[in-house]
Amino acid sequence: MKAIMLMFDTLNRHMLPPYGCDWIHAPNFKRLAEKTVTFDQAYVGSMPCMPARRELQTGRYNFLHRSWGPMEPFDDSMPEILKQHGVYTHIVTDHQHYWEDGGGTYHTRYSSFELIRGQEGDPWKGEVGDPELPDMIGMKQMHQLIRQDWINRQYIREEKDFPQAQTMEKGLEFIRRNGDADRWFLQIETFDPHEPFYAPQAYRDLYPHKYDGKHFDWPPYGPVKETKEEIEHVRYEYAALLSMCDHYLGKVLDTMDELDLWKDTMLIVNTDHGYLLGEHDWWAKTIMPFYNEIAHIPLFIWDPRSGARNERRQSLVQTIDFAPTLLDYFGVEIPPDMQGKPLKHTIARDEAVREAALFGLHGAHVNVTDGRYVYMRAPVSEDNTPLYNYTLMPTHMRSRFSVRELQEISLQEPFSFTKGVRTMKIRASGYNHYHTFGTLLYDVQDDPYQQKPLTAHPETERRMIELMKRLMADSDAPAEQYARLGLD
User: Fold this and answer.
1) How many CB atoms lie within 10 A of CB 84?
2) Tens digits of per-residue pLDDT, 275-295?
3) The pLDDT of residue 142 is above 80
4) Strand partners, 114
5) How far apart are CA 388 and CA 123, in angstroms?
6) pLDDT above 80: residue 24
């Protein structure tokens, strides 16, 4: 038995042909849907990148207890558990957050790993002088990332130079070298189609359009202020990068066909979250409510045990289900601290594994969905307190916790999942603006684009609150999370 996870970052469900998009050139995603089970009710858990990857490995929500950070010493790591039980695990990725302070303990859980450099603002090529930048709109405020990205682009010219192309070729190299071997798990993970939306010209040519404006392939994180033409242009830039992803997906499918891997190899094609390209008058993610364009994600799975293909599933599933699914597939016992559920019977016959799903970002709304309703509970106070990080690994995305942050730490008694280990309790800086959005309730069956929040449905709100509180209790959420949300 073998397994492949092909993971794209920021893959928008609503822009894929199997989910109804009729203008994106992505024939291999159509082909993928014919070879797998397509999930219609897959949701994120913890946002964004590394919190999602922590729960991918641990099968647990991250966002109730800490912000972006490394794997913790008490975490159960799926690839490490597989490794300990004789399953060879390998990751090839160009996702640069793995080699930052807040991601340094993830890739080392695998038997081996290959890291491809150059995505986004990855500090890859060293040049003292500033690069020549075009007149642009978008992410100017993140100058260091912009500066480094434009240095990197000088070394990424032909398609073979692009990090995604290298990542996919290295993944295919592993498959060809080990296709006849048994008991391995391969994670091919590309940062694309995450911003900046930089793709070879051949993919951009798939979307001809008139645009004479400034350079724009990296939207800002914030409200939309750009013109209709600029919005349309950057959507085409995203589409071009998505079509590049589709091309390399096709190479993976071709290789599985050629080597007849479908008979004994699970395939999971997934993402960590979506992205707003002007919908709801917002760009990007994490700074606004988690609308379905962000939280409702695509998911495709082939399981050779059932052989189910070209079918759809309506059961509610999440990122936390991947770890137990893979452990179950290889016949390895699932640790009791994993909250996710193995999806074997969901894939085979749409057997439900949960009534509701929790999702969110540390210090933002806490959200719950039952598949029909989405309830977004906002902080009740303007300062978004109380809020703490619980960790033994005090690092942020690109930095260590500051000395000032660490001067007032206390020790927290063990949570149910920390294996009897106490953690540091460190005051967290909240996102104070979430209070301004208020609490929101949507019926996404009748209002799939979430244009009309429900305002007079007290019974529905009470039911969603009870689901939220139950799931928070199941997660052993800190007491202050209930107080922060006005649920205590």
Assistant:
1) 11
2) 999 999 999 999 999 999 999
3) no
4) 92
5) 30
6) yes
Instruction: Map the chain to HEC letters.
Output: CEEEEEEECCCCHHHCHHHCCCCCCCHHHHHHHHHCEEECCEECCECCHHHHHHHHHHCCCCCCCCCCCCCCCCCCCHHHHHHHCCCEEEEEECCHHHHCHHHCCCHHHCCEEEECCCCCCCCCCCCCCCCCCCCECCCCCCHHHHHHHHHHHCCCCCHHHCHHHHHHHHHHHHHHHHCCCCCEEEEEEECCCCCCCCCCHHHHCCCCCCCCCCECCCCCCEECCCCHHHHHHHHHHHHHHHHHHHHHHHHHHHHHHHCCHHHCEEEEEEECCCCEECHHHEEECCCCCCCHHHHEECCEEECCCCCCCCEEECCCEEHHHHHHHHHHHCCCCCCCCCCCCCCHHHHHHCCCCCCCEEEECCCCCEEEECCCEEEEECCCCCCCCCCEEEECCCECCCCECCHHHHCCCEEECCCCCCCCCCEEEEECCCCCCHHHHCCEEEECCCCCCCCCCCCCCHHHHHHHHHHHHHHHHHCCCCHHHHHHCCCC
User: CA 4, CA 326: separation in Å to the nearest integer?
Assistant: 10
The label of the residue with tokens 């009729």 reads 22
| Alpha carbon distance 59, 320 (integer Å) | 4
Instruction: Give per-residue pLDDT as tens, 379-398.
Output: 999 999 999 999 999 999 99
Rounded average pLDDT over 133-137: 93
Query: Looking at this protein, which amino acid is placed at residue 480?
Result: E
CA atoms within 13 A on the CB side of 417: 24
* Both structure tokens of 21: 């998009």
Q: Are 16 and 24 in contact (CB under 8 A)?
A: yes
d(CA 5, CA 299): 11
Q: What is the pLDDT of residues 198-236, one digit of tens each?
A: 999 999 999 999 999 999 999 999 999 999 999 999 999
What pTM, to 2 d.p., does this model score?
0.97
